[in-house]
Specification:
homodimer, alpha+beta
Chain lengths: 239, 239
């Protein structure tokens, strides 16, 4: 049976998603919980391999398991094994052939910025603290340039593993909630560090310059990569 | 000059407000920051001496200082010295005679409950996780019994330091925001553990029984004391 799991995690205490020897990772914790709950399982896949410090509210993983609890009780059984900085928020049976990564149609990330003049202890490691004034209208104008297909090579490290830099952005907008400002962005898929480098660039760029950067410029022309602790994988869409 | 400071802190890493030898406390961290920023200061007072694990969004402290930065720059100077789980969110000059505790007219606390069937890593140590169903109407009816003057001796430990158990509740109501439920309660002052024991009792009590408990019953007749990590000192009001 194929299980589809929706996961939430606070990335602060993890060296990212992907299991690495000697490091605490989300995948490592999930594998240990799967070992405890299912007599036999394999084929663990994930929609987005988040970097160290990056959070998730709607990460999706898939795996094939024999035995163990039915889908309706899998979340509770796994949560009993998982530490409190990662949780399964939904578990369901998926159709044969479902693959968390290859079946995904789009991913939605949010990047959170805390704009108050003073820092907030509740936002430490959960948002970028940016106490200098930000022009919400300029940010909105930049976000409006994102939908469509662009060459994002300026927004990923030069020592890249990517061959293709075109990505299709389906939606992008800034939302303000008091002192918190968030960039919501949905695309078919993302290059490594893409959202963080878009945000680091948007903090300063003017629309004309930003539009130019979206058409395949060298990495050196874009801005800094914003820190990982503001980034959340919010949800993954499937057909 | 009298300084009035508004403080925010995540109580997770603190043994409460009050300085204790060998323990990490909010007061201890603030005293170290004050030593670094003001050549001379004394008379530190606080509106609410929160227990270990209890959070604050609007704690108020007062002190008298000579020299050092003017009020307009005191927050920034203190935040540069404070660790990231406590912050000064406002600093202002207060009139002679202002005392954070004795001048306070009322305190407002919020107790947060996370009601989703699955836990949230972002709510761990910031809310009580209560996955069983709660009847919002019953909770509202209980909260409606709180305003007015009552004898709260059932809601504080028996080995008490209080002499008087009458407290005047000015406002009390539950507010729901998705899976998060919060009791907002304002009173002239509070007994030790009062909000946490009110919440622990409200989770199960019926209105008739709860009304009786508000009129001076033994501690043994009330419910459990809810854990500290759901409690926030939200604000303190002054004339």
């Amino acid at each position: 049976m194929i299980h589809r799991l929706t996961l939430e995690y606070d990335g602060t205490g993890f060296s990212g998603w992907a299991a690495q020897p000697g490091r605490r990772t989300v995948e490592g914790e999930l594998r240990a919980a799967l070992d405890a709950v299912f007599p036999s399982w394999d084929g663990l896949a994930v929609a987005g391999r988040t970097d160290a410090g990056v959070h998730a509210r709607g990460q999706v993983a898939s795996l094939s398991a024999a035995g163990g609890p039915p889908a309706a009780r899998a979340a509770e059984a796994l949560n009993a094994e998982l530490p409190d900085d990662v949780a399964v928020v939904a578990a369901e049976e998926a159709p044969e052939g479902f693959h968390a990564r290859f079946s995904a149609r789009s991913r939605t990330y949010r990047y959170r910025i805390w704009t108050r003049r003073t820092p907030s202890p509740f936002e430490a490691r959960r948002a970028l603290w940016h106490p200098r004034p930000l022009d919400d209208e300029r940010l909105a104008a930049l976000a409006a340039l994102l939908p469509g297909e662009h060459d994002f090579r300026a927004f990923t490290p030069t020592d890249t593993q990517h061959d293709v830099f075109l990505r299709a952005v389906l939606d992008a907008r800034w939302e303000r909630d008091g002192d918190a400002l968030g960039l919501w962005i949905t695309a078919d898929s993302f290059l490594r560090h893409m959202v963080r480098t878009l945000v680091g660039t948007m903090l300063d760029a003017e629309p004309e310059r930003f539009a130019c950067l979206l058409e395949g410029r060298p990495r050196s022309e874009a801005g800094r990569t914003a820190p990982p602790w503001g980034l959340y994988l919010e949800r993954v869409a499937y057909d």
